[in-house]
Amino acid sequence: MQRYFAALTIVLMLGMVLTRACVMRRTGVRALKFGALDKRDFLIPPFAFFYFYLVFAAAFGWPAVSTQAFFESDPIAWAGVALCAAGLAVLLWSLVSFGRSFRVGIDADHPDKLVTTGIFAFSRNPIYVGFAFIVLGQFLVFPNWILLVYVGAATWLFHRQVLLEERFLKRHYGQEYLEYCGRVRRYL
Fold first, then answer.
1. Which candidate, 127, 128, 124, places its Cα nearest to that of 185?
2. Kind and range of the H or E element at 170?
3. pLDDT tens digit string along 73-98?
4. Which domain holds residue 165?
5. Residue 188 lies in a domain
6. Does the residue 134 lie in any domain?
7. What is the pLDDT of residues 4-47, one digit of tens each?
8. Into how many domains does the chain fold?
9. Is 138 domain-assigned?
10. If DSSP codes are grouped into helix, strand and coil, which group holds residue 104?
11. Is residue 19 within 8 Å of 9, Cβ to Cβ?
């Protein structure tokens, strides 16, 4: 059961983000700006698709690179499911709070207003917090060395993206963003 929920998490996560981007596209906002400023971002999708395959392979018994687990524990797997659910909830609240300002990547051409309400009153980067919950939760459900490497790589990539976004936000919003940084933590 836990394995299926961990796999379903990927479908729900991608569904939420892509649905939001499509809805925004209908209103004239191009929300998908991934890789527009940093061309190295094209390296991320192949690794993401491999990660998705690893999770589905572990859930449905497909061929996998490694099936060796660090441990097997139902309570820990259920804790992973809880983290996945929390990650989806944080992601959904983030998408709602973002409103028309939602972007995947940095939109230097048409940035919208700075969002500081909703979940953004508690975290400056709740989407990355939600993604981190999901990745960590999936590792607890499928505790193998490859997913552990992905936990570390995702943490590094999320932080790298946050630093890029912060530089842009400081330049674009100036004092308003600096005051926001003084009130709200970067992550939790």
1. 124
2. helix 145-173
3. 999 999 999 999 999 999 999 999 99
4. 2-183
5. no
6. yes
7. 999 999 999 999 999 999 999 998 888 887 766 666 777 788 99
8. 1
9. yes
10. strand
11. no
